[in-house]
Amino acid sequence: MRIHDLVNGVQTAPELFINAAVAQAVRSGKLPYILSYAPIASMNPFQRLLYCRAEKSGYVIVPSLRFNDLGKVSWKGRSVIHLHWLASVLSEIKNPEEALGEIEKFQGLLEEWKARGHRILWTMHNVLPHACQYPDYEIMLRKCIIKYADAIHILSKTSVQAASRFFDLPEGKTFHVPHPSYEGWYPNISDSVTAKLDLGLSSAEFVFLQFGSLQRYKGTTELIRAFQKLENFVPDRRLRLVIAGKPTDKRYLAEIRTITDESLNITVIPNAMEDRDLQTLFNASDVVVAPYTDTLNSGTALLAATFGRPFVAPNIGAISDTYIQDHSLLYSACDPDGLVSALLRSLTYSTNRSQLKNIMMDHRPEKISTTFFKLTSKYLFDK
Questions:
Q1: What span, in angstroms and rounded, lies between the C-alpha atoms of 209 and 240?
Q2: Which domains does the chain have, with CATH numbers?
Q3: pTM of the model
C-alpha cells in the first residue's frame, strides 16, 4: 500500500505524486487535479471517506507523512495542498523562541508552495489543539495559515463563531462540508445479544459505551463519576459502562483505573480496536456516550448514527448540528448535573429512527465527498 511504501521508504513523496498523476490521466484521458494531504490519520478513516469520490470529481489523491514532503513537484494551476491537523507543528517545542522558529519555518513552506503554483486548503478540525502548551503561538500559527490559505474547510456551522475568540475565518474563502458518516466502512452483521456475549456481558445489562482514544478532553473520568451516581439513582437496573480506546497518556489511564476500581460494572478496554471489532462494541451498546469537556467536531457522533445507537453528548459544535432534529439526549456542558440527567433520560429513550435516517442521508460519504470536491473546485479554481 502507498502509505506503507512511504513509511518504509519504498517510494518518495515526488514518486508517489507522479505515479498518481499518470494513473489518473491514463484512466480519464485528462490531466487531473492533484490533492496532496498531510498528516495521515492512520487510525481514523475520515480522510478516505472524505476523498472517496475523488476520481469522479477529476481529482487524484496523494498522501504525505509530513508537511515538509508536500509540494515537491510543481503542478501549476492543478494542485491542491490539503492541510489537516496542525498539532505536530509545535508539539515538540520547549520555549517561545522555538515556537517562533517553527512558525517561521512553516511560513516558509507556505510561501514556497504558493510560489510553485499550488493552491492551499486547510480543514479546521479543531480551533486549537487539546491541552496545548503555548496557545498564543498556536493562534499565531493559525493566523499565518489563514493568511496564505486559498480556502478553509470547516466541519460544523458553529466553527466560525468558535474560532472568533482567537482568530477570524474570512467569509469569502471559508466553506462548510460536514463530517461523513462511516456507512459502508465498518462491518455490521452482529446482533446485540451475540455482541454482548462476545464482550462477556449479560443480555440483561443496559450498556453505555464510550469509544475513542483516552484523552482528558474526552471526559472519561467525569463519565465514570456520572455513571456511579446513576447506579445509585436506579439500583434495580443492571447497568454496565464499557470504555474502549487507546490511551495517549499513561497517567490519565492510571486515574481511570483508580476510580473504576470502585465499581464492578465498568469495563475498560485500553487499546486500539480493529475495524472488524467495532461492530461488537457498538452492537453490544444500548447508548453511546461522548462526554467531551471541549470539542468542535465529533466522529463518534457519526459512528453512533452509523450503528443506529442513541447518543449522549454535550449540546455543542457539530454534535448540535448533527442531532438538530432531536436534542433529547444532549445536555448543557455548563450544567454540573447535565451528564447524569442525560444518562438517566437515555434509560427510557425511544430511538428516533427518523432522525437517524436523516443523519445517514445527509452524511453519506459519497454525498459528502462529492460536495467537498465541488466546493474545493469552486473556491480554489473558480469552477
A1: 9
A2: 2-180+365-381 (3.40.50.2000), 192-362 (3.40.50.2000)
A3: 0.90
